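Bench notes, afternoon.
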Amino acid sequence: MECRQRPLENLVKLKPNHLADDLDHILTHTEGLWEELRGRRIFITGGTGFFGCWLLESLAWANDKLDLNVSAVVLSRNPQAFKLKAPHIYDYLAFSFIYGDIRTFSYPEGDFSHILHLATYDEEDGNIFPPEALDITLSGTKRVLEFARDRGIKSILFASTGAVYGKQPPTLSHIPEDHPGILDPFDTVSPYGTAGEMKRAAEAMCALFGKYYGLEIKVARCFTFIGPYMHLNKKYAISNFIREGLNGGPILVNGDGTPYRSYLYASDLAIWLWTILLKGESCRPYNVGSNEAITIADLARTVAQSFNNINDNRDLPAYSCFSNKAMIAQRQVPADYHPKFKSNPNYPRGKQAMVVLEYVAEHLNNYRSAKKSPKYMGDHDLMLNFLMGQTPEAAPKRAAFGLPHNYFFSSTKMSGNVDLMDGESKGRRGSPLFIHIQGFSDNSACGVFTFLPATLIPPANKILISGRGRPTVKVPPPDFSAVRDYMDDLINDGGERIL
């Protein structure tokens, strides 16, 4: 069903928009493109994600400014969640949102002139595991292309990824579209392995449908972007820096800050995607990203100018349990609070300090178990792949909670270890996370969580990954992203940041 009730005040053009300057920028740089969409109807998948939000914002803006009379039908797994996220887009008269799975959606009624296929799996979605992600990418693309073929929709934009090239060769500052790529289908850890293979296979499917059914399919290989609507819980430097700045904490650079990254602003992303859809050549890829590189350290300083708050690892105290970069949060439990824990649903009343302890244990266990914390499946895969013969390039993220850090795989009966080496001997690195639980006379309780980041290991020491029958491998120390995630989860689950 596409029809729904809309508030009367929203049955008009968009209200004043806080993105007005950006949207005017898009309109200025897409002048002359929009006539092809006049009076047309567009089908959009993935329209509620980062890319989709910007394309819908700019489409509505152009529609109002140029009186295009264009409309769009947007497929979404959760339209109601998007209504809360962007109600002004959801209630826009020319847009209709339909519920459906990209792999099995029913064809919407009516004619369409263009398709924007933006849907993809979200690597942060704890309900989606990698095998299902492969099915979402390939079966979903096949379903969209079949819809285009069956309904005679000729013009399609497919949002792919720069990961199809694999790891960028160190001799290349920029990857051209004709680069053959270097992908490893057995690399399940980095974004350049199976994730790149998924999109590459989907591109091949687009090429075949274009050849045999005459579809005009434009492919945008997208790199890294920044702007409103971006998720701040992604495992990217820019997301971490902005989140830390917004939370009032120090902006930490893990490592020496020398690696280079590039980011394209979202309004420029929208300009290029509309241009590729409406002016691009069929069945050829276009790289979409910034050509301006910046070091991680300089990126942190640039972000910090807005917050006046920066610290990188070179400013952290030495290998120590002391830090002047503290982050402190608390979780209070009233006397009459009676939770139901998954681990102990019949937990007795009246022992609130123990309630906090159980809460701590349950949350920490989410960071120990791959099944309970799929976003750290990369740690699980890294160690399992090492034991199966691959050479890791980094330590598991969760090793930042303290060393040694160990794994046991019940399916293979194999175990792996992550150790701090002090010369030829194994040492220990205490956790930078301190937890104190205090009960009070009124039977309430409070847990205080203190994160004291410091240089993880002394410069002269090293971290080794080892396992039975495998040669040991020296790897760089992990950053503190896993510990920061724990603190953020605590705050988002009813805790309070106090420093």
